[in-house]
Amino acid sequence: MGRTLAEKVWDDHVVRRAEGEPDLLFIDLHLLHEVTSPQAFDGLRMNGRPVRRTDLTIATEDHNTPTLDIDKPIADPVSRTQLETLRKNCAEFGVRLHPLGDVEQGVVHVVGPQLGLTQPGTTVVCGDSHTSTHGAFGALAFGIGTSQVEHVLATQTLPLAPFRTMAITVDGELPGGVTAKDLILAVITKIGTGGGQGYVIEYRGSAIEKLSMESRMTICNMSIEAGARAGMIAPDQTTFDYLEGRPHAPQGEDWDTAVAYWKTLRTDDDAVFDHEVRIDAASLAPFVTWGTNPGQGAPLSASVPDPASFADPSDRLAAEKALEYMGLTAGQPLREVAVDTVFVGSCTNGRIEDLRAAASVVRGRQVADGVRMLVVPGSVRVALQAVEEGLDKVFTAAGAEWRHAGCSMCLGMNPDQLAPGERSASTSNRNFEGRQGKGGRTHLVSPQVAAATAVVGRLASPADLTDATGAATLQGV
Ligand SMILES: CC(C)[C@H](C(=O)O)[C@@H](O)C(=O)O
Ligand code: SF4
């Protein structure tokens, strides 16, 4: 019987298989950041073990880093300790680190791909749930816990429980103004935050094939929000074009050999998935979340749902609680929800394509009075590219704040936070209670919707904006 893409990558990495035991897999790339690595290094130290493959291990600073005044000492003692600990550990164990201030610094899931470290057919792990991002290249990429981080540091292998396979096939054309973020939010609303549990999801179909690498990363990034172990997209010419010439991509003859192998990384025609979901791209629209998990979403044109409309009692209860926390009432049109803050950034939507999209919406316009808009590139390289294109100027001219790269307001581990009761439209991936600061209320949106929301002051899409003549713009629905 044929094999799926995920099964092929898995099989190519098994270093030990024994009856009744999980397979032991070789890990090609281990990414580290300051939050989940300290105890793992402590474990190595206690056992007198080195890092087995420093050449396959790389660290960056992202979660605790400030996005302003990065040349000043870090004020928050917890963040300072986290960063100092990572620096000390990397120096002691010989691990390559891109610290704050380095040109390769940034959110770990932005840095790996842009360096060409993330490649098709590889196994990638990181002590971070959004490692699923790297699956966009046809890599099998998992988030792991700190004890597993220690295991990989020590052995470059990992015992892994078997997974089930799911295909999410998206065919057809995405309507104008509908992005990868809208697509994945719609998928999660459809299958639920537990819908992917135990599965490696492969996204396929004509609508997926047309997406850029940045958009594919947005989709795979949020697989974890559907509970999946990983998300993958088969590598194709778009993937190869993105990778060619990047610092760690194979070169010369090695490139040709690699591409020949990568081309075999497609699910066989006769392979069978354990579960299949089909979506018509043409049926999708700009999507926003109204609740406190990424599965509580709806089209922007809809209203806040009535909890009584949920058939499942636990969904009903979750909706009731979410509306209370979010300060929303059933039946309220989503377009009438006013925000205080707009955040464009994160490993979901902090790449150059995302910044271009947001800039194209705010160009020549002004952020609404009383709204704060933060634009935070996912990495220093993204920032440099954006500056080269003049995007930073577009944002600042519109009244937005242009910040230094990092996780920033994606989560409250650094100074960029919402105040209690404040509401944001955010291009990040989690809208959990307190995620962006204690009492903060988060609506997950695409970069285009974020930018239009900043201009209008209420949840909006570019189509809600008018140009100087009062005509609706052509930027999409
Ligand atoms: C801090 C880290 C462990 C966490 C994760 O695993 O994803 C963070 O990146 C997040 O997005 O919530
Ligand atoms: S940007 Fe957000 S989701 Fe991504 S690694 Fe940082 S905190 Fe996690």
Automatic annotation (TrEMBL):
Enzyme Commission code(s) on record: 4.2.1.33
First-tier enzyme category under EC: lyase
Record-listed [4Fe-4S] cluster binding positions: C347, C407, C410
Function comment: Catalyzes the isomerization between 2-isopropylmalate and 3-isopropylmalate, via the formation of 2-isopropylmaleate.
Membership in a protein family: Belongs to the aconitase/IPM isomerase family. LeuC type 1 subfamily.
PANTHER family recorded: 3-ISOPROPYLMALATE DEHYDRATASE, HOMOACONITASE, MITOCHONDRIAL-RELATED
Name this polypeptide is given: 3-isopropylmalate dehydratase large subunit
